[in-house]
Each structure stands twice: as C-alpha cells, then as structure tokens.
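Collaborator request, handled under Task 6.
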Amino acid sequence: MESRYNPAAIEAKWQTTWAEQGLSQTSEDSSKPKFYALSMFPYPSGNLHMGHVRVYTIADVIARVRRMQGFRVLNPMGWDAFGLPAENAAIERGIHPAKWTYQNIAQMRQQLDQLGISFDWEREVTTCAPHYYQWTQWIFLQFFQAGLAYQKEATVNWDPIDQTVLANEQVDSEGRSWRSGAKVERKQLRQWFLKITDYAEQLLNDLDKLSGWPEKVRLMQANWIGKSTGAQVTFKTEVGDDIVVFTTRPDTLWGATFMVLSPEHPLVEKLTTKEQVTAIKTYQEAAAAKSEIDRTAEGREKTGVWTGSYAINPVNDEKIPIWIADYVLMDYGTGAIMAVPAHDQRDFEFARQFNLPVKVVVQPEGENLDGDTMIAAHAGDGVMVNSGALNGIPAGKEKGQSVEAAVQWLEQHGKGKGTANYRLRDWLISRQRYWGAPIPIIHCPKCGAVPVPDADLPVQLPEDVEFSGRGASPLAKLESWINAPCPTCGTPAKRETDTMDTFIDSSWYFLRYPDAKNDRQVFDPSKVNSWMPVDQYVGGIEHAILHLLYSRFFTKVLRDRGLLNCDEPFQRLLTQGMVQGKTYKNPRTGKYVFPMNIADLSNPVDPETGDALEVVYEKMSKSKYNGVAPGDVVNKYGADTARMFILFKAPPEKDLEWEDADVEGQFRFLNRVWRLVTDFASQKHTSALNTQHSALSKPEKDLRRAIHTAIKEVTEDLEGDYQFNTAVSELMKLSNALTDAPCKESPVYAEGIQTLLILLAPFAPHIADELWQSLGNTASIHTQPWLKADPEALVADEINLVIQILGKTRGAIPVPAQSTNEELEQYARESEIGKRYLEGKEVKKVIVVPGKLVNFVVV
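Structure tokens returned to the collaborator:
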C-alpha cells in the first residue's frame, strides 16, 4: 500500500472492483424495506458540469447510507435523450441525431463512473431508444383511449423565411428566428393536447399529501394550477349567439359596460360588421405577430377594435359593445371577458382609451365615486349600488357577501352558475420536429384519427431523412413514411407527422426503472408497485413546475388505468442549489471577461477598456467564463475530494460558491485520514474492543464519547433535511479526536479508526474502501452495516463548568457531570478561578445553568 494518498492509483481500481462485485445492483430481497433513490436524469449534452456532480453525489450518499442501513435500494440512471440540440447538431454538422446522442451518452457515462456514483446500470433507460419510446407511444394511446388526448387549433411560432415551426427557445429577445433572422409570426396549426385540466383539482388537492416537498415548490405548483372560484355567465349577442365568460366577481356584472374577445375567438368573424372588417383583420394580423408575453404585459398601452356588434348583459338587459383586444387570450379561460371598468384597472384603462362608459357598482364607505370623474378603478371593499337585488350588500374580499349573493341570484334566474376556473391549460404536446417520439396516430379520410395497434408499436423514426432546418418537419417530407393504410378499414391514409414534447418522456421514466428490460409490457405493475413511490427525488428547482406537475399527472392517469396503486410519484423532494463560480464582469458594458486575460486578479480591470471589473459569484456557464470542468478537478484531486467539497461547502438546498482553496482543504483532510489510518495499520494493534467499558481510562472514555457522538450526529444529519455539510464537519471532529488521543494502543482507538472509515464511506467511497482493506478486511466497506450510537458512551463523566463574574467568562473547570446546582456552585467557589475573582467581594446573587455555567453577581 502506498505511503501517500494517490487518488489516481486507487479510484479506477475500486470502480472496477465494485462493478465486478455488483455492489450497485438492486436487491430484490422483499424481506428488506425498500428505498427508491432517484436523481433527475440528464440531457446527454456530452459533458458533465458541476451541477450534475452535485445532484448525483447527493443522491449517491443517500443511496449508499440506506444500503448500509439494511434497505434494498434502487438507485438507477438514464438519459433524457430526445430534444432540439441533437437535431441542431444534425443540421450544423451533418451527423445523425442518434449518432450524436449515443456518442454523448458514452462520454457522460464514463464521466459519471469516474465520480464513483453507485448507479445500477443494469436498469439504464434511454428515451430515444425504440424499446423505450415504444412504451411512451403505448402510454399516449392510453390517454387517447381515455379521452385525454385530442387535437385542436393552436398558435405556434412560425418562421416565414424557412417556412418552419420554431420552439420558444429558437426565438430571440427581439422576436426573430435564431437561424434566418426573420421576424417570427404566430400561426394557427392543428395540434395534439393532453387534458391535464381534467386532473386540475386532484393535482391541487394532493399537494397536501406532499409534506416531504419544499413548501416553495408546492406553492409554485399551486400558483401554476391557479384555482379561482366565481361564476360562469352566458351573454347573448343581438343575433342570439352565446358568449360564455368566467368571472371571479359576478357581483360586478351590473357594472359591465362592454365585452372583449380574443382576436382568435371563433365568433369574431360572425360578429364583425361590414364597416369593421378591414380594421378587425388588420388588428388580428398584428396580434398574431405578438408573443403571449408582449400581449399580456403590465403597463402597455391598451389597443383594440370594436366588432360593430353588441351583446345583452344578462342581469339588466343593457346593450353593451363587443370589442376585440390582444390582452385577452383564446387559450386562457373562455377567450372572452366582461369588462367592468369601474372596478378593474385594466378594463378602466381600456375604457378611458376608447371613451367607453364607466359605471360604479361598489361604493367605498364614506365616498361617492362617479364613473365620469374616476382617475383609477376601485378594486377594494364597499357596498353594492346600482345592482338591483344586490344593492346594500357588503362587497369585498374579506367581509363581503356580494359574490355569494350574486351566484345565488344567477342560479335562481338561470343566468349562470357558480364554478371554479384554473389558470392551468391543457398540455400542448405536438412538436413539428424529427428527434422525438412519433405520435402513434394514422389519419384516415373515412375513420378520422385512428390509433396505431399495440402490435405495430413502436412507430419508429425513419433514418433516411434530410436535415436542413427549413420547411416542414423532416418527417412531413418523407412520403414513404407518411403513407400507411388505415388500421381499421385499410383505406390509404397518412401518419401523424408531429412528435411528442420531450417532457412526455420524462413524465414516466421513473416507472420504467423497476422493470427496465421488460419487452412485453410497459412495466409489470407488481414490480413497479413494490418500489413506488420514489422515496427521495433529487433535482433542480428549475423543474419545480412543469416536469414535476406532468409526472404527477401521468401517475394519476396510469393509476386510473389500473397500472399503479400510488397517488403521487415522489414522496420526498430535495431541490439542490446551483453551483456558482467566481465571475469577472464589466458593470458598464455588461460583458464577462475571461480570468486568464486579467493581469492582476487582486485588482481586476478589463484588458480592453481599462474599466474596473465587478467580482461576483454567478451560476457556472461557458458564456461567463466561470465554469470548472469536473474532469479537471477529478484528475488533480480525485473524485473523493470533489465529492467531499460539493457536500461540505454549503447545505444541499443552498447555492454553492466554488473556491479552489476549499477544494484544497478537503484534499488535505483526506490526506490526514490517509496518514491516520495507514499509521495505525502499520502497527500491530488489537482490533478487539474492550467490553469492560467501566474499566476504561478517562482518555479512553473521552475518545469513545467522541466516536459515538460522531455516529449519532452523522446519522441524524443523513435523515430529515440532509445536512451533509455538518456531517462532514463531524467526520473532521472525529479525525481530530483520534489524532489528539493519547491512547493509540487501546481497543477504543481501533474502534475509532473503523468508525471513521464506515462513516466516511458514503461520502468518499474510494479512499474508505482502500483504507478498510489496509486494516485486513476482505469484504468491501460498503457491505458493512451502518453503526448505531451507544447511549452509554454518550454520557459524560465530567463536564467543563464555565465560571462567570458579572456575566463575563473568567475560565472553566472540570466537574462531575451529575453534580447538583448546589454542588456546581460549591465547585465554582472553591476553584482557583472562584477564589481569585470573589476574594474581598460580596456575592449578591448566584445564577446556575445546570451542566453549563455558574455566574456570580458581585458588588
């Protein structure tokens, strides 16, 4: 064994040994309690970054500890492998997306192996593999059969030069195409949706079951679902068409003085009079070119056009004009609103812009608002006025009864009904791209949309396609692939050419891991139900809404299809903070500067402009020149040091600031552990523990207390909120206690050395196994049972009693731990410290804090 710590010499050896011994493979021993540890799987970009290192190290420590605690552990890994970057690589480099993707997977898997992560690679899944997306397509058909998948017209980003649909991330901040530079247009296309809104109430209510999730994430999901209660009201047009609106303030219906429809509303064309046709069409074209964010931005000038038609207000039969305006969105609510300008600021601004009437129906106490002279809408409390049967009723969010009274009146008169509305919209899953799972539908001129039979799955992506980035999707251009007979009637028909949103793939991957090699069914329900739900999920806060919400949705649908018996997929969730690097930024230009180009980092200035640079910590990024490649750290210090730093630097949910000096600190600590154990191993010490603890000397008792304190504290830190940083601190304390212990020949010292290595094993697995072997052990340290603290060892025979005079600490003395308050005072008075500071003084009061201190108040 080497006398000095050399990570490069031991880490590859142990990674090979663990793989040969199958230590990471999942036990199916049902006599053991299960623990499903899951890290969010990565997109195979080709290189790990420090954010990956953090999430996988955190999950790995949890998995390793649970194995040692006697759990059967599932700790799998896979690849979220469909997506736009691979298709872009095909366009730019002439390499097929599959080849590019699998090359990246091979590279990243090698990088993961170097970190010593104990993944069960026997259960690896890759979402772009046909044997995976076969079941993604099968699940889509389950949604289709349940009436949860449907097609409708929806708006997309359209590049008019390349004649292609763009993803949101392909549109720059100025609304131009990333490739052609054309001003992006908004265009209506027929697309596929999943009816997530059917599960809105369940998704909202079941957040209460997720006590193991951060409150912030649950709140984000609740806000995204966005439940609001109110009433659904039907307005009639003059020719008898229905316009349905939802309002949270049905009590203000009597103050509605106009209506506003989305420019895309299906009734607009019918409602537009001859005189208004040109103005309406011009406005619709302008609205179509704007993004949703632009259309709904706060504070922007209100625009709109009158259709020339009127609706009848159902509560007072007043005729009110119908307008269109781009701030009303067709796919939110009903695409129509009633406008109450006296009590809604947006409606008020619109009314003032176009000289529309403002009618007060909620009068604040002690005031007399006049719609003609108001300078802003009144959205607060008051009393109902000008509202028929509601007059005199208190109105407002806190003490008001007007909303309830309005709903009651509407239902009694058949004018509307109380209901709930959700901000959540159905999930648009169509993508007009190649590199995704094909939607398994055939469009027949006779039968309509027909599902591909299960026996014909997967609908595989063809390989003989051309990637140009222009025109329709590569699939839509391949006639040999598109043309197919109808599975029902045999008529010549056409395949669906859209592929699925990649969020579909990641919404069920955790259900495949328990039965990853099943080629007969999506998974064996008995196997999946024996592992689900996931006990601990670890991933970034950026997935707090979409991925987690969609996964919850899929779980509930598959439960309702009889495939699962759990309501929620992830019992506990840890959202780790970002890894930040030191960044040099020119505050005047906003540009980042490469550190190697800065002459003096202690006084950094921009080499081009001479401006003083700002030094800040920001999320690691190539564009900010602040990234640290995991491979560089592993090559210099070893994987164990990288793991220890990642875990020690900050609590897992907090952002972590990368400091080379702190990495060095962890490397030095592991070197101290190496020397401590190798020095011990080189001597012929006994490893048998002295069972007569009562006969131990004071140094032995002190050391044994330090050993079992470390066991207790580290174990507690690895439960609950996972405080890995303080757990590493406890390891350092135990190392220091062993270094300072005068009883190195004692069996207690041997116990301490073994304890240090077992507690260290989940954090720094390679060095722990190497040193464990040096002690003469043949089985891997990772097969050892986790230690339990001995309560007797934690009881101190002596404590350090602090002596204070007038609240100021003057020293401390050792005293028996079980001393009474009276005895503690006596010890303090009779000590040299007490005698020195109390001599010649009158003690007015004595304050004793049991087990801690004695404070003398003197005059």
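The cover message to the collaborator said: "Residues 196 and 553 are 7 Å apart (CA to CA). The mean pLDDT is 93. Please let us know whether this matches your experimental observations."
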